[in-house]
Amino acid sequence: MRMLAAMLIVWLTQSLAHLGSPLEELKLSDLRDTFNEVHNGHPHEAIDIMAPRGTPVHAVVPGTIRKLFLSKAGGITIYEFDEPGQYCYYYAHLDRYADGLHEGMRVERGDIIAYVGSTGDADARAPHLHFAVFELSAAREWWKGEPIDPYTNLIEAVRNSR
Ligand SMILES: [Zn+2]
């Protein structure tokens, strides 16, 4: 019993269990589990959500904008840490950041942080949000962690958004 209670507390405090939807008006049919696919010779370890260029991207959890990074593959990206620094949420191929977004900035779940695009190695004809989650190590390094498939959590987020 005590064990169960402890497990419940751990679950309740996990930001992953309480995601907001990264895109407004997302439907269950928009979600596909692309986590285990191989993209450009690499394990994808993320979910791609197709959306028109310029669609607002919302922070899925309350937390901190840890890093704004421009990478060859990801293009314009955001690394957001949740409040306990347990999980990092990664948003990529962004068209642009929301005005005033900066590193170290505190955000709430639902805040607009960026807009969907196709920067990096995404096909310009198929703008989408590349969304990934990884569990941070004790060192809390934004560039490394254990990848987690957020598909079921996104399904929950969409269900809860209506
Ligand atoms: Zn992707």
How would you describe the overall organization of this protein?
The protein is mainly beta. It contains 2 helices and 11 strands; from the N terminus they run αβββββββββββα. A hairpin with a 3-residue loop joins strand 5 and strand 6. The protein is globular. The chain starts with a helix and ends with a helix. The mean pLDDT is 93. The structure holds zinc ion (ZN).
**What would you report as the Rg, rounded to the nearest angstrom?**
15 Å
CATH superfamily: Glucose Permease (Domain IIA)
User: Which ligands appear in the coordinates?
Assistant: zinc ion
Number of strands: 11
Keywords:
single chain; 9-stranded antiparallel beta sheet; two-stranded antiparallel ribbon; 13% helix
Write a brief caption for the model.
With 162 residues, the chain is mainly beta. The chain has a single domain (2-160), classed as Glucose Permease (Domain IIA), CATH 2.70.70.10.
Give the topology, please.
Elements: H1 2-12, E1 38-39, E2 42-43, E3 47-50, E4 56-58, E5 63-71, E6 75-82, E7 87-97, E8 106-107, E9 112-116, E10 128-136, E11 145-148, H2 151-160
Antiparallel strand pairs: 1-2, 3-10, 4-9, 5-6, 5-8, 6-7, 7-9, 7-10, 10-11
The chain binds zinc ion.
